[in-house]
Amino acid sequence: MNKFSFITVITTISLFFFASCDSTKGSTDGDNQADVTGNVSIEDAHSFSNTNQIRTTHIDLELDVNFDNKTIYGVARHTMEHLKDTDTAIFDINGPEIQKVTLGKKGHEKETDFIIGTKKEFIGQPLSIKIDKNTQYINIYYKTTEDAGALDWLDPSLTAGKKHPYLYTQGQAILTRTWIPVQGTPANRITYSADVTVPKDLMALMSASNPKKRSEDGKYHFEMRQPIPVYLIALAVGNLEYRSLGKNCGVYSEPEMVGKAAWEFVDLNKMITAAESLYGPYKWDQYDVIVLPYSFPFGGMENPRLTFASPTLLAGDRSAVSVIAHELAHSWSGNLVTNATWDDFWLNEGFTVYFENRIMEELYGKETADMLALIEFQELEVELDEFMKNGQEEDTHLKLSLNGRNPDDGMTDIAYVKGAFFLKTLERDFGRRRFDKFLKGYFEDHQFQTLTTEQFKKYLIEKLIKPNNIKFNVDAWLYEPGLPKNCISITSPRFEKIQDLADQFAAGKDIFKQPKKKKGKKREPALARDQYTPQEWQVFIRQLPKKMDPARLALIDEKLDFKNWGNAEVATEWFCLSIRSGYKDPRPQIKKMLMKTGRRKFIWPIYEEFYAAKGEDLQWALAVYKEARKNYHPVAVGSMDETLHYKP
Ligand code: BES
Ligand code: ZN
Known about the structure:
By secondary structure, the chain is α+β, with helices and mostly antiparallel strands. The protein has helices spanning 3-21, 255-264, 268-279, 322-329, 345-364, 366-389, 413-430, 432-445, 453-468, 474-479, 493-506, 534-543, 550-560, 568-581, 587-596, 600-613, 615-628, 634-644; strands at residues 54-66, 71-82, 88-93, 97-103, 110-111, 114-116, 125-130, 137-143, 151-154, 166-169, 190-197, 203-206, 219-228, 235-238, 241-246, 249-253, 287-291, 300-301, 306-309, 337-339, 449-451.
């Protein structure tokens, strides 16, 4: 690198820093216009990239997946579009080791200078590449390192089959840059193709066109023709099998689980039909689900064409399928219309939770949908209380301000549930017919684009509020703390009944005694688990006092055996109450769960309870964590280390 070019690059970087990165982020005005490609020019506090000057439109990936040294050797060939004059293209990296950078079409390449800037917490480093005004192709040669926070490399012992290793990626929110050099803002959309080489006995899948069978030579080609934000690039490699569940949908998993998965998700086709009838055609051709190993840190992740799902969804009773409805709904809210920055995350998740509930209502009726919504609402209330107690009022706004923070901090019930209840409240005030028409138009008008909260607000006022001439406190919902007073209230008679039962038990009543026979009627059976759904039992546990006499909890386990229930949602609530109450019987089951599953929704509250319990409880949990930590995805490890104040 000559002195001159070095200085040029440094100047560009510092200019860019001053212009956007290190400056405190102000709120974006509503006038950011999306151009024809769906790219908007907005500030993103979580990306160094200069997409408003030059942006990637397409990436050709060449990936060689090596399980022996847990490394991906990659070339990312970016096709660029120039928007303004610049001599530098800036990408995001956080982990990959850059070997060289070339310009030009494959085979006609010339090496160019690049510089890697200072590391910033969470965000990583800017990779600034010297280009000229004719540069169309930038090729980045790299290999991944141990710091690839997106990658989970699993030894065979952590898979269902125990014979083959496994790899999967998790890109959201800003982890794609840990395994591919990209312009990491969700405001930019790209298409991609990939040539991937894996060991011959394994199959590779991506968030793209996918094979249904293993190839002979371990080579796979993928195409994603619809433009997506880079956080949706995803890869899974393992011993995989496919089962079709309809014309354009099906499920992949290890052969040991694929039958169970096909049974659990039998309604997939119906869900797609219901979703399409609500908000318009499915735009991604194929919809498959892959059930990953237990370490997957989420219930589901909406990678386009291929939802990644946790095996904890295979409850054996189809009681967790709302997560699939949720990930499917993201095919509209999130993947088709995307949050422009992570401060607008509620646009992805709030819409999706609302839409998920509508799909559940179509398939299973209003009573079920209302129960699911109420469960979530209870969680929102707890979280709101906590934020308010901790002086984190700002974190209860729908529009967030995550500058300088990990965007994952925005993954709270505010974005999810407050967001969904905002939409439910709009639906109540404007009527379902009008609101559905508005939403259908919203997806149609913004497909393959990204949106800020301000752009959404403008659209909402123009298309729904003004034409109907109804007052609505939009600003309070978007920019004020807590829950506005006009928030819709949902009730469930079935929950009221089970809450009453919990109150009776808490008051010392023997709820397990078989009721007396009533004249002329069959004798009712004694209370048993199968009389209520898992959601009702969840509400039962939540209704009990925060701490209870361990002997009373032991009675419930004796009669209802919650501690051995395969349904992880109920088990988690039960374990948390047990820890708070000093009821130690379920410890073997807790340990089993913590060793096996890495889904954050379950392990996080359990570790939190142990941390709060202190003393011997905490020591016990720390010993389990020490053993279990290696079984978790880096995303979960990060969160648990923080919660437990654990230093490896
Ligand atoms: N997109 C999210 C998962 C996510 C969000 C990963 C932010 C990383 C950063 C996914 O759609 C999701 O919300 N999953 C939920 C399930 C849902 C039913 C609430 C989960 O995994 O718990
Ligand atoms: Zn989601």
